[in-house]
Write a structure and sequence with these properties.
223 residues, mainly alpha
Length: 223
């Protein structure tokens, strides 16, 4: 569902905007954790929430409350991809602890592909399988899914979830850059302001967690 929502958001807006909207995910997880644990957010956490909401507002409206700079469906699918990304991270925690990440993700993607196939319309599509189309499919399947997820999980196991999530914040920047360079997508200054606000929110959460992690390690060494 997350991949489907993300690709729908790209289709209805552009790769850069869809990727940045999906990166509201850490802020949503933060809100969920505060509600679940019944704890008030800290000042930095409140700042990250405000930055994320403000950045989304600027991307969606360009600062004009009465109008949308992206299509309503593009905005909805972008935000929905962030929500499904939260579920993707939170729901399989117990299974991953028991069986490992690769088997869980592999089986999950296989089952989701089988379930989605009857509704995908692939059988009714009259497609000319040109090298360009095959290359695009290979890019999505191999590079964008198999290699990307495997490398991310391997990196996360080597450097830890906090550092890996901090490094993953480079993704929206690269998405905007390549959307502009390759797809000739048009962005305005206020778009970059909104994207910077969302990235700042993610960085604020990640850096705060990184500081906590280092503090725990230092206390462990002292003990």
């Amino acid at each position: 569902m997350n991949q489907f929502a993300y690709l729908q958001a790209i289709h209805l807006s552009n790769a850069g905007t869809a990727t940045v909207l999906q990166y509201i995910c850490p802020v949503l997880i933060l809100i969920y954790a505060c509600v679940k644990d019944r704890v008030a957010p800290t000042v930095s956490e409140v700042a990250s929430i405000v930055l994320a909401i403000g950045g989304t507002f600027l991307i969606a409206t360009h600062g004009e409350i009465g109008s949308l700079s992206v299509t309503p469906l593009g905005l909805i699918w972008g935000l929905f991809s962030a929500f499904t990304y939260v579920l993707y991270i939170l729901l399989p925690i117990a299974l991953i602890k028991q069986y490992g990440s690769l088997p869980v993700i592999g089986i999950g993607m296989l089952l989701s592909g089988i379930l989605l196939a009857p509704f995908s319309g692939v059988a009714q599509m009259d497609v000319e399988w040109t090298p360009e189309i095959l290359g695009a499919l290979a890019g999505i399947i191999l590079i964008g899914t198999v290699i990307a997820y495997t490398m991310f999980l391997k990196g996360a196991s080597m450097v830890g979830p906090v550092k890996s999530s901090l490094l993953a914040a480079i993704e929206p920047i690269s998405a905007v850059f390549f959307a502009f360079l390759i797809m000739n997508e048009q962005f305005f200054t206020i778009d970059f302001v909104g994207m910077a606000m969302i990235l700042a929110a993610v960085m604020l959460i990640s850096v705060k967690d990184l500081i906590k992690e280092r503090s725990k390690k230092e206390q462990g060494v002292l003990d």
